[in-house]
Specification:
single chain, about 350 residues, alpha/beta
Length: about 350
């Protein structure tokens, strides 16, 4: 309402003076005008044009996105439409995300006499910084040449897949290669109290893998027996991989399965919107965090520490904390009778509200 009053009287008093008297910023006033223009453009976007944009986003992401992510992707492309309109159009034209499917093959063999680590993670999946806790797991991919086994390492801070390995056999080298890739990729501090969480499989409990953890200064953590929820992030990742990319495909060779899996992992890290991260990709989430920590001290003199950055469970509707208002304060460029201008503005406000 203040912005509307300012616009209506822009030929009577300078915009800067009105903004100062009404306690709003000039930048906010201009942003309001831009938003109104975008809303006007959105209302003129035809159903046919919007459907073309929806199909383009759907195809670009290989059918992995439902209406919530497609709506957010449209907003990222500066196509401002209502989410209910997107949902209704997709339902009318049968555009829906790939359906879920149950996979029953077990890759965990906990019937062994190897040492079992305690559950140090204890389902604490929200980390305040990178490289505090990693999780790992193994899944399978069927091909005409036999099984392809995939081992991953996920940084719980950003849910980024920082290491992976794909082999036709499920030996300890499978998980060792994935951990080594993660280690060389991230180069974490050996003295930072790093945790690696996994299930109780023989590959993770093997002497070779345990020795590598000790060499890297990482403390092992393992899920409780038969409790997949203790390693939920890894289970969710594999479910997304199979639903969004592998379901319905038949691979003639192991090489084909590797190429398709690798393409999805790269897309997941770089592009895929993650609901836990406030609908940004893992790499985007980490980039936001790095910009926040590099900012050092904010305008109010408070240090931008890790506690100021939203973790994976608190990033809904995430707004970057490093954004600031336009520099400098608004100054009057001429001498005005400030009291009379303020009185006139207040009188106009009262008149608009009916006294």
């Amino acid at each position: 309402m203040k912005y509307a009053l300012i616009r209506r009287n822009r030929h009577v008093w300078p915009i800067r003076v009105q903004c100062r008297m009404l306690g709003v910023s000039v930048a906010g006033y201009h942003e309001h005008l831009v938003r109104r223009l975008q809303i006007a453009r959105r209302r003129h976007l035809s159903t046919e044009a919007l459907l073309v944009h929806i199909r383009a986003v759907y195809a670009a992401n290989r059918g992995a996105y439902g209406w919530p992510r497609i709506w957010r992707e449209l907003h990222a492309q500066d196509i401002r439409v209502g989410k209910h309109r997107v949902q209704r159009l997709m339902q009318q034209h049968g555009i829906r995300a790939r359906g879920k499917r149950r996979f029953r093959v077990s890759t965990t063999d906990s019937r062994h006499g190897l040492p079992i680590a305690p559950n140090l993670l204890n389902r604490n999946f929200a980390m305040a910084a990178p490289n505090r806790a990693w999780t790992g797991d193994i899944t399978y991919i069927p091909t005409n040449e036999g099984w392809l086994f995939l081992a991953v390492v996920i940084d719980l801070f950003s849910r980024r897949v920082v290491g992976w390995s794909m082999q036709p056999q499920m030996h300890s080298n499978l998980v060792i290669d994935a951990l080594e890739m993660a280690w060389f990729e991230r180069s974490p501090d050996r003295n930072a109290g790093h945790i690696f969480h996994s299930d109780r499989g023989s590959q993770y409990a093997s002497r070779e893998f345990s020795g590598l953890l000790v060499e890297c200064g990482i403390t092992a953590s393992m899920s409780r027996k038969g409790n997949c929820w203790d390693n939920a992030p890894s289970e969710t990742l594999f479910a997304s991989l199979k639903v969004e990319r592998l379901h319905g495909q038949s691979f003639a060779t192991i090489r084909q399965a590797k190429d398709e899996t690798l393409a999805w992992l790269l897309w997941y890290n770089q592009t895929r919107m993650h609901s836990t991260l406030g609908y940004v990709s893992p790499i985007q989430f980490e980039q936001q965090w790095h910009r926040t920590t590099q900012a050092g001290y904010g305008k109010a003199g408070k240090q931008n520490t890790l506690s100021n950055f939203p973790t994976a469970t608190t990033t809904t509707n995430y707004n970057p904390v490093w954004d600031t208002d336009s520099e400098g304060k608004i100054k009057l460029l001429a001498l005005w009778n400030v009291e009379s201008i303020a009185a006139a503005l207040i009188e106009a406000l009262h008149a608009r509200h009916g006294g």
